[in-house]
Specification:
The protein is of the alpha+beta class. It has one domain (2-53). Helices cover 28% and strands 12% of the residues. It has 2 helices and 2 strands; from the N terminus they run ββαα. The longest helix is centred in the last third of the chain and has 10 residues, at 44-53. It starts with a strand and ends in a 14-residue tail after the last helix.
């Protein structure tokens, strides 16, 4: 999961203002591409709800972010 910070942005789920949006992706490059195409970007609340509803498992091993 990667965070995209953009002032004045809105959540792709609830459409509320959210300068920090989260993207599920395997690399930072992929996350940025998904965000630019409008295919990703959720506020913390919407991302948490999606993860809870989808029965996702969060891996606790940190991974290096690659650009």
């Amino acid at each position: 999961m990667f965070a995209i910070v953009k002032e004045g942005a809105k959540c792709g789920g609830c459409n509320w203002p959210a300068s920090h949006q989260y993207v599920l992706a395997t690399t930072l490059k992929e996350a940025k591409a998904l965000y630019r195409r409008g295919e990703a970007g959720l506020c913390g609340d919407c991302m948490s709800q999606m993860l809870a509803d989808g029965n996702y498992i969060i891996d606790n091993e940190p991974q290096k972010a690659t650009a």
